[in-house]
Amino acid sequence: MMGTRLAQMGEESIIVESVAGARLEPEMYTRIPPLEEREVEQELHQPAGLGKRRRDLVLFSRHFVACQGQIFNLAFLAPRPQRIRTIAWVSIGFSLAFVVAAGLAFARSQIPLALGAAGVAMVLGVVAFLRCSDRLLFYTRTGGIPAFDLRNRLTDRRQLQSLLEILESRSKAAAKCLPAGSQRLAAEVAEHRRLMLSGWLKPHSYERAKKRIFARYSRMGAPKKKAA
Known about the structure:
Elements: E1 4-9, E2 13-18, E3 23-24, E4 40-46, E5 55-60, E6 64-67, E7 70-73, E8 82-86, H1 89-107, H2 111-131, E9 133-139, E10 146-151, H3 157-176, H4 181-197, H5 203-221
Antiparallel strand pairs: 1-2, 2-3, 4-5, 5-6, 6-7, 8-9, 9-10
Helix pairs in contact: 1-2, 4-5
Protein backbone atom coordinates (compact mmCIF):
# COMPACT_ATOMS: atom_id res chain seq x y z
CA MET A 1 0.00 0.00 0.00
CA MET A 2 1.45 3.32 -1.06
CA GLY A 3 1.85 5.83 1.74
CA THR A 4 2.65 9.55 1.58
CA ARG A 5 4.81 11.91 3.53
CA LEU A 6 5.01 15.69 3.73
CA ALA A 7 8.35 16.98 2.48
CA GLN A 8 9.74 20.50 2.77
CA MET A 9 12.26 21.49 0.08
CA GLY A 10 14.47 24.44 1.01
CA GLU A 11 12.53 26.85 3.20
CA GLU A 12 9.15 27.26 1.56
CA SER A 13 8.75 24.88 -1.41
CA ILE A 14 6.31 22.35 -0.01
CA ILE A 15 5.42 19.25 -2.00
CA VAL A 16 3.81 15.92 -1.39
CA GLU A 17 6.04 12.99 -2.18
CA SER A 18 4.88 9.39 -2.36
CA VAL A 19 6.99 6.43 -1.33
CA ALA A 20 7.37 5.60 -5.01
CA GLY A 21 8.87 9.05 -5.66
CA ALA A 22 5.95 10.72 -7.48
CA ARG A 23 5.29 14.38 -6.71
CA LEU A 24 2.11 16.42 -6.59
CA GLU A 25 2.36 20.20 -6.53
CA PRO A 26 -0.13 21.58 -3.98
CA GLU A 27 -0.32 24.83 -5.96
CA MET A 28 -2.62 23.02 -8.38
CA TYR A 29 -5.30 23.19 -5.67
CA THR A 30 -4.74 26.91 -4.98
CA ARG A 31 -4.92 28.16 -8.58
CA ILE A 32 -7.10 31.27 -9.02
CA PRO A 33 -9.14 31.39 -12.25
CA PRO A 34 -7.94 34.14 -14.63
CA LEU A 35 -10.17 37.19 -14.95
CA GLU A 36 -11.67 36.15 -18.28
CA GLU A 37 -12.80 32.79 -16.83
CA ARG A 38 -14.52 34.11 -13.72
CA GLU A 39 -18.29 33.81 -13.43
CA VAL A 40 -19.78 36.20 -10.87
CA GLU A 41 -22.65 34.64 -8.91
CA GLN A 42 -23.35 36.80 -5.84
CA GLU A 43 -22.34 40.26 -4.63
CA LEU A 44 -22.66 42.05 -1.30
CA HIS A 45 -21.80 45.72 -0.91
CA GLN A 46 -21.70 47.36 2.51
CA PRO A 47 -21.06 51.11 2.14
CA ALA A 48 -18.74 52.94 4.46
CA GLY A 49 -20.31 54.45 7.56
CA LEU A 50 -19.16 56.68 10.38
CA GLY A 51 -15.84 55.13 11.38
CA LYS A 52 -16.64 51.96 9.40
CA ARG A 53 -14.81 50.77 6.28
CA ARG A 54 -16.61 49.79 3.09
CA ARG A 55 -17.03 46.04 2.51
CA ASP A 56 -17.40 44.53 -0.97
CA LEU A 57 -17.72 40.77 -1.39
CA VAL A 58 -18.04 38.93 -4.70
CA LEU A 59 -18.62 35.18 -5.01
CA PHE A 60 -17.44 33.81 -8.35
CA SER A 61 -16.68 30.49 -10.08
CA ARG A 62 -18.52 28.50 -7.39
CA HIS A 63 -15.94 28.57 -4.58
CA PHE A 64 -13.90 31.76 -4.85
CA VAL A 65 -14.54 34.97 -2.94
CA ALA A 66 -13.09 38.40 -3.60
CA CYS A 67 -13.22 40.62 -0.52
CA GLN A 68 -11.27 43.66 0.60
CA GLY A 69 -8.87 43.44 -2.32
CA GLN A 70 -7.97 39.76 -1.87
CA ILE A 71 -9.22 36.50 -3.37
CA PHE A 72 -9.94 33.51 -1.13
CA ASN A 73 -10.63 29.89 -1.97
CA LEU A 74 -13.60 28.68 0.07
CA ALA A 75 -12.05 25.21 0.23
CA PHE A 76 -9.50 26.60 2.69
CA LEU A 77 -11.90 28.68 4.80
CA ALA A 78 -13.95 27.55 7.79
CA PRO A 79 -17.54 27.17 6.57
CA ARG A 80 -19.00 29.42 9.27
CA PRO A 81 -17.71 32.81 10.40
CA GLN A 82 -17.30 33.78 14.04
CA ARG A 83 -19.51 36.59 15.28
CA ILE A 84 -17.57 39.21 17.20
CA ARG A 85 -19.48 41.92 19.05
CA THR A 86 -17.69 44.78 20.75
CA ILE A 87 -19.57 47.15 23.08
CA ALA A 88 -17.81 50.18 24.51
CA TRP A 89 -19.34 49.93 27.96
CA VAL A 90 -16.88 52.35 29.56
CA SER A 91 -17.57 55.13 27.07
CA ILE A 92 -21.32 54.47 27.30
CA GLY A 93 -21.18 54.65 31.10
CA PHE A 94 -19.32 57.95 31.12
CA SER A 95 -21.66 59.37 28.49
CA LEU A 96 -24.71 58.51 30.61
CA ALA A 97 -23.04 59.98 33.69
CA PHE A 98 -22.52 63.30 31.92
CA VAL A 99 -26.12 63.19 30.65
CA VAL A 100 -27.27 62.92 34.27
CA ALA A 101 -24.89 65.71 35.27
CA ALA A 102 -26.26 67.93 32.50
CA GLY A 103 -29.83 67.25 33.67
CA LEU A 104 -28.97 68.17 37.26
CA ALA A 105 -27.22 71.32 36.12
CA PHE A 106 -30.25 72.38 34.07
CA ALA A 107 -32.49 71.71 37.06
CA ARG A 108 -30.35 74.09 39.10
CA SER A 109 -30.31 76.69 36.32
CA GLN A 110 -26.55 76.24 35.86
CA ILE A 111 -26.80 76.65 32.10
CA PRO A 112 -23.07 76.92 31.19
CA LEU A 113 -22.25 73.84 33.27
CA ALA A 114 -25.22 71.98 31.79
CA LEU A 115 -24.17 72.81 28.22
CA GLY A 116 -20.60 71.71 28.95
CA ALA A 117 -21.73 68.41 30.43
CA ALA A 118 -24.11 67.84 27.51
CA GLY A 119 -21.28 68.49 25.06
CA VAL A 120 -19.00 66.01 26.80
CA ALA A 121 -21.83 63.45 26.85
CA MET A 122 -22.33 63.90 23.13
CA VAL A 123 -18.61 63.42 22.38
CA LEU A 124 -18.46 60.31 24.55
CA GLY A 125 -21.58 58.98 22.82
CA VAL A 126 -19.90 59.36 19.43
CA VAL A 127 -16.77 57.63 20.77
CA ALA A 128 -18.88 54.77 22.09
CA PHE A 129 -20.64 54.41 18.74
CA LEU A 130 -17.34 54.29 16.86
CA ARG A 131 -15.93 51.67 19.22
CA CYS A 132 -18.96 49.39 19.06
CA SER A 133 -19.00 46.81 16.30
CA ASP A 134 -20.79 43.65 15.22
CA ARG A 135 -18.69 41.65 12.77
CA LEU A 136 -18.65 38.23 11.13
CA LEU A 137 -15.04 37.11 10.93
CA PHE A 138 -13.98 34.34 8.54
CA TYR A 139 -10.96 32.20 9.44
CA THR A 140 -8.83 29.82 7.42
CA ARG A 141 -9.96 26.24 7.97
CA THR A 142 -6.88 24.60 9.52
CA GLY A 143 -4.48 27.51 9.95
CA GLY A 144 -7.02 29.44 12.05
CA ILE A 145 -5.90 32.83 10.68
CA PRO A 146 -8.42 35.69 10.21
CA ALA A 147 -9.16 36.11 6.49
CA PHE A 148 -11.82 38.81 6.12
CA ASP A 149 -14.87 40.16 7.89
CA LEU A 150 -18.32 41.50 7.11
CA ARG A 151 -20.47 43.88 9.12
CA ASN A 152 -23.53 42.26 10.67
CA ARG A 153 -26.03 45.03 9.91
CA LEU A 154 -29.80 45.12 10.21
CA THR A 155 -30.11 46.97 6.90
CA ASP A 156 -28.87 44.01 4.83
CA ARG A 157 -29.46 41.16 7.29
CA ARG A 158 -31.65 39.12 4.91
CA GLN A 159 -29.19 39.32 2.01
CA LEU A 160 -26.29 38.63 4.34
CA GLN A 161 -27.95 35.53 5.81
CA SER A 162 -28.68 34.17 2.35
CA LEU A 163 -25.08 34.75 1.31
CA LEU A 164 -23.73 33.08 4.46
CA GLU A 165 -25.77 29.96 3.72
CA ILE A 166 -24.37 29.84 0.20
CA LEU A 167 -20.79 30.35 1.42
CA GLU A 168 -21.15 27.58 3.99
CA SER A 169 -22.52 25.16 1.41
CA ARG A 170 -19.83 26.04 -1.15
CA SER A 171 -17.06 25.84 1.46
CA LYS A 172 -18.07 22.32 2.48
CA ALA A 173 -18.41 21.18 -1.13
CA ALA A 174 -15.06 22.69 -2.16
CA ALA A 175 -13.27 21.08 0.79
CA LYS A 176 -14.44 17.67 -0.42
CA CYS A 177 -12.56 18.24 -3.68
CA LEU A 178 -9.22 18.55 -1.87
CA PRO A 179 -6.97 15.50 -1.56
CA ALA A 180 -6.86 13.59 1.70
CA GLY A 181 -4.17 13.33 4.37
CA SER A 182 -0.80 14.95 3.88
CA GLN A 183 -1.62 16.13 0.36
CA ARG A 184 -4.50 18.20 1.65
CA LEU A 185 -2.44 19.77 4.42
CA ALA A 186 0.36 20.58 1.98
CA ALA A 187 -2.22 22.35 -0.18
CA GLU A 188 -3.40 24.32 2.87
CA VAL A 189 0.16 25.46 3.55
CA ALA A 190 0.48 26.50 -0.10
CA GLU A 191 -2.72 28.55 0.16
CA HIS A 192 -1.46 30.38 3.27
CA ARG A 193 1.85 31.00 1.52
CA ARG A 194 -0.03 32.49 -1.45
CA LEU A 195 -1.82 34.87 0.90
CA MET A 196 1.48 35.83 2.52
CA LEU A 197 3.23 36.47 -0.79
CA SER A 198 0.32 38.66 -1.87
CA GLY A 199 0.83 40.78 1.25
CA TRP A 200 -2.44 39.77 2.89
CA LEU A 201 -0.86 37.71 5.67
CA LYS A 202 2.02 38.90 7.81
CA PRO A 203 5.01 36.51 7.89
CA HIS A 204 4.45 35.76 11.58
CA SER A 205 0.78 34.90 10.88
CA TYR A 206 1.88 32.56 8.11
CA GLU A 207 4.38 30.84 10.40
CA ARG A 208 1.70 30.44 13.07
CA ALA A 209 -0.72 28.93 10.55
CA LYS A 210 1.97 26.61 9.21
CA LYS A 211 2.72 25.30 12.69
CA ARG A 212 -0.95 24.53 13.26
CA ILE A 213 -1.18 22.73 9.94
CA PHE A 214 1.95 20.65 10.58
CA ALA A 215 0.67 19.87 14.08
CA ARG A 216 -2.59 18.66 12.55
CA TYR A 217 -0.67 16.47 10.11
CA SER A 218 1.45 15.06 12.93
CA ARG A 219 -1.67 14.06 14.86
CA MET A 220 -3.19 12.47 11.78
CA GLY A 221 -0.03 10.58 10.92
CA ALA A 222 0.74 9.36 14.45
CA PRO A 223 0.50 5.56 14.71
CA LYS A 224 -2.39 4.29 16.79
CA LYS A 225 -1.58 2.36 19.93
CA LYS A 226 -2.72 -1.22 20.00
CA ALA A 227 -5.06 -2.21 22.77
CA ALA A 228 -3.43 -4.39 25.42
